UniProtKB/TrEMBL annotation:
This is UPF0056 membrane protein. PANTHER family: UPF0056 MEMBRANE PROTEIN YHCE. It is found in: Cell membrane. It comes from Orbus hercynius. It comes from the Bacteria. The lineage of its organism: Bacteria, Pseudomonadati, Pseudomonadota, Gammaproteobacteria, Orbales.
Length: 209
């Protein structure tokens, strides 16, 4: 059962971040960089994402207590947010919900785009942060948290490999292939968001479900 939980955590992370769908964005943001600079951007972005997700995982319970928010209320709101992001992916509007034109415009004036907008908010966006807080508050024992951190490191390592081979993958899949992958990830993400919401509603209103 623990292995199943970790697999579910990892699959959900891939679905909500959708690194395959972000490949064209990564290519466009690093198009003016040479190979070494692109690899450095890739490495820095994934390190930043790992830090963002781990902090969200470990500090989630403290943040909820600080603002007086119950776990079940947060699960319902977080599940709704995750489901909405999944819906936007199915409709082909991933970028519109994850970043704004101002984010991209500001990033173009900076030397590196690794932190903004690549790591935040494209990869470590509100959906991913919400998911980490929900997982961290549901499974808060030391063993589970260590396992989740390992999963985050594995995830970021996979993203690093994926972005490193971005030019080859885009040529292989083509635009249609990337769209198909994005929509499949969106469907998985919607199902995960609904499950999170149902769990929160069930615990908040025991007699309702």
């Amino acid at each position: 059962m623990e292995l199943q939980i970790y697999v579910k955590f990892l699959v959900g992370l891939f679905a909500i971040v959708n690194p395959v769908g972000l490949l064209p964005v990564f290519i466009s943001l690093t198009d003016n960089l040479d190979s070494e600079a692109r690899n450095q951007t890739n490495r820095l972005a994934n390190i930043a994402v790992a830090v963002i997700l781990i902090i969200s995982l470990l500090a989630g319970s403290f943040i909820l207590d600080l603002f007086g928010i119950s776990l079940n209320s947060f699960r319902i709101a977080g599940g709704l947010l995750v489901a909405m992001i999944g819906l936007s992916m199915i409709n082909g509007k991933l970028g519109e919900n994850k970043h704004t034109k101002e984010d991209l415009s500001e990033s173009m004036t900076k030397t590196s785009v690794a932190i903004v907008p690549l790591a935040l908010p494209l990869m470590g966006g509100p959906g991913a942060i919400t998911s980490m807080i929900v997982w961290g508050t549901n499974y808060y024992s030391f063993g589970y948290l260590v396992g989740f951190i390992i999963c985050i490191v594995i995830f970021c390592g996979c993203c690093w490999l994926l972005f490193r081979s971005a030019p080859f993958i885009i040529r292989t899949l083509g635009k249609s292939g990337l769209n198909v992958v994005t929509r499949i990830m969106g469907l998985l993400l919607m199902a995960l968001g609904v499950e999170i919401m149902v769990g929160g509603i069930r615990d908040l209103f025991p007699g309702l479900l």
